[in-house]
Write a structure and sequence with these properties.
This protein is of the alpha/beta class. The chain has one domain (about 5-280): Aldolase class I (TIM Barrel, Alpha-Beta Barrel), CATH 3.20.20. About 45% of the residues lie in helices and about 20% in strands. Zinc ion binds next to loops.
Length: about 290
């Protein structure tokens, strides 16, 4: 199956009371692990590349790799650009076959956020690519984007309807108390705010900062209308820990790189399978 858009992959999520996982990758091993985990669960899945991952792997290389991975399996896979701020990179990604992009203009004032999100949505529409945008400011560190606790801003429900209608985006990231990176203390999610936002728009809603959110909170978010949940940090940590274990386990005479990096695939697949069980998307894959 080829890649599908974010709009297509999230279509039945809210009504079906499940969310589709968006998983960040930085290498071949974690990307293939994400795909393997989703295939085992027969679940749709979103592979997410941050600006940092794109700079590391190369945009063409990364897009070509994921297209190949999608062609080899028969579950729906979306290739999504995560937290992009550079319009030139976004447009190149769309031309190279990304089926979804996130324009993150959330650090700008409301009107500027609308203008940038709308401009990207208009460009993406020409290529049949989906767009996610963000309202409110998520705390924590997402690569080069650092928002301290005092500057973090919850999404104002009053801003939502005009934002979605004017920008014509396909998914809306909301700030309701999660943060990027590891949590220092358990996050306190604002469920009434989420419920209010979901009542105002049918636009699929996205939860960022999924690493370390308690299972019950995930389930409540999904029940209240969250359709996409992003997990990045947990996969990064899993990748690094698995590699460290491989190095410790193998004798110095072992020089086959696959003996070291190979176990990362299964470890990342396990993380993804566990999340798919929580998100309720197992068995929701469709065939073309
Ligand atoms: Zn994020």
């Amino acid at each position: 199956m080829g890649l599908v858009t974010l709009k297509e992959i999230l279509a039945g999520a809210r009504e079906g009371h499940y969310a589709v996982g968006g998983f960040n990758f930085n290498n071949y091993e974690d990307a293939q692990g994400i795909v393997d985990g989703a295939v085992e669960k027969n679940s749709p899945v979103i592979l997410m590349a941050s600006a940092g991952a794109i700079k590391y792997m190369g945009l063409k290389q990364l897009a070509g790799m994921v297209k190949g991975m999608a062609a080899a399996v028969d579950i729906p896979i979306c290739l999504h650009m995560d937290h992009a701020t550079d319009h030139a990179m976004i447009k190149e990604g769309i031309r190279e076959g990304f089926t979804s992009v996130m324009i993150d203009a959330s650090t700008h004032p409301y009107e500027e956020n609308i203008a940038q999100s709308k401009a990207i949505a208009e460009f993406a529409a020409i290529y049949g690519c989906s767009v996610e945008a963000e309202l409110g400011k998520l705390g924590g560190r997402e690569e080069d984007i650092v928002v301290d606790e005092a500057s973090a801003l919850f999404t104002n429900p009053d801003d939502v309807v005009r934002f979605v209608e004017e920008t014509k985006i396909d998914a809306l990231a909301v700030a309701i108390g999660t943060a990027h990176g590891f949590y220092k203390s358990e996050p306190k999610l604002d469920f009434p705010r989420l419920e209010k936002i979901a009542s105002l728009t049918s636009c699929p809603l996205v939860l960022h900062g999924g690493t370390g959110v308690p299972v019950e909170d995930f389930k409540k978010c999904i029940q209240l209308g969250m359709s996409k949940i992003n997990v990045g940090t947990e996969l990064k940590a899993t990748f690094s820990r698995t590699l460290r274990e491989s190095v410790a386990k193998n004798p110095e005479s072992e020089f086959d790189p696959r003996k070291y990096a190979g176990p990362v695939k299964a470890a990342c697949a396990q993380v993804v399978k566990d999340k798919i069980d929580i998100f309720g998307s197992a068995g929701k894959a469709w065939k073309c």
